[in-house]
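We store chain and fold; thus.
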Amino acid sequence: MRVFGLPRVFYHMARHPPPQLSHQAQERLRWLSAWEALLKQGLTTGEASEALGISRASLYRWRARLKTQDPGGSGRQEPEAQEQEKAYLES
């Protein structure tokens, strides 16, 4: 009988739980959720951001940071650290 394991990333995530989000990151997630809900109702990005009272650029920046980087941290990673993390997760 052959036993198959789960991908290495699974075991890494099991040992290293995600960081707790800061209060500021939680607030930004709430704003992004509200903004996306307004977009689904048919408002344009400008109208939705105006209704929330937050600039459209800030909302796009927060969304990009959430998708590409650690939302709980500073949002910035050195390129070397990104490469090392990627190599570690792929191995």
In short: The radius of gyration is 18 Å.
